[in-house]
């Protein structure tokens, strides 16, 4: 069951500082998490992120039991199986979800390949069968989702908020939201002929749907 987590301000701990840890930490910082990396050495990319941009904290030493205190999520990404296993055991004991980059099955959460277009999120997972294949599929999907989707999601977001604010009857609201999802706005955005709707246009659309 894939879920999207809101990580804003949440403490997330990454153990290890190689390219794999860098990928996980970048994702956490982008999600607004309070990111903590514990590792005696880190990649240049992580150094830039954590020290120069001050987006997160680098604890410059090996993992110690207790490093996961207060963590919302934990990531074990060292190149040492016994360390990753110890991190996984601490997380398990503390009830903290754990991603083990060296052994997907030992952890209880895996990171899928992800494509984002504004609010649109496409995730691809092979359930650990072939992570490189997940990455390739994302590249393929990437070609099918242009910037037009970003505009489309923006439009859906403002229109949905407007409908929720103006239409109180649940049945009518549901019908309108379904019509909205079925509308050909995306086609018109793609054709280049779409202009942001003002309040009058939104009201007109709602009335048009109600008349039919
Ligand atoms: C999608 C992506 C997201 C991300 O990491 O953020 C991701 N792996 C990526 C790339 C990648 N990983 C590996 C290669 C080398 C080729 C190969 O082996 O196939 C490449 C390709 C590359 O680097 O180009 C090796 C590898 N990966 C795992 C193991 C251990 C094991 O098998 O359990 C080993 C063997 C290690 C060893 O040999 O020791 C485990 C996991 N990797 C996952 C995710 C989770 C399952 C996702 C799924 O399948 O749904 C899972 C279970 C746990 C996790 O890490 O969450 C990311 C694409 C990022 C992007 O888009 O750029
Ligand atoms: N999940 C994935 O996507 C994926 C992809 C490739 C490899 N892997 C696995 O993940 C592991 C890490 O990959 P990498 O390329 O980043 O490895 P790496 O060897 O480049 O980096 C390992 C990092 O772990 C740190 N480290 C070592 N011992 C530590 C300790 N006791 N406490 C804290 N940090 C410690 C090192 O300082 C280093 O920064 C690999 O060994 C492999 O098993 C996973």
UniProtKB/TrEMBL annotation:
Per its record, the protein catalyses: precorrin-2 + NAD(+) = sirohydrochlorin + NADH + 2 H(+)
| Keyword annotations | NAD, Oxidoreductase, Porphyrin biosynthesis
> Sorted alphabetically, which InterPro entries does this protein's record hold?
Met8-like, NAD(P)-bd_dom_sf, SirC_C, Sirohaem_synthase_N
Top EC class, one word:
oxidoreductase
Q: Name a Pfam family for this protein.
A: NAD_binding_7
Q: Gene3D superfamilies in the record, alphabetically? A: NAD(P)-binding Rossmann-like Domain, SirC, precorrin-2 dehydrogenase, C-terminal helical domain-like
Q: Any idea of its EC number?
A: 1.3.1.76
Recorded metabolic or biological pathway in which this protein acts: Porphyrin-containing compound metabolism; siroheme biosynthesis; sirohydrochlorin from precorrin-2: step 1/1
NCBIfam families named among the record's database cross-references: cysG_Nterm
What is this protein's record name? precorrin-2 dehydrogenase
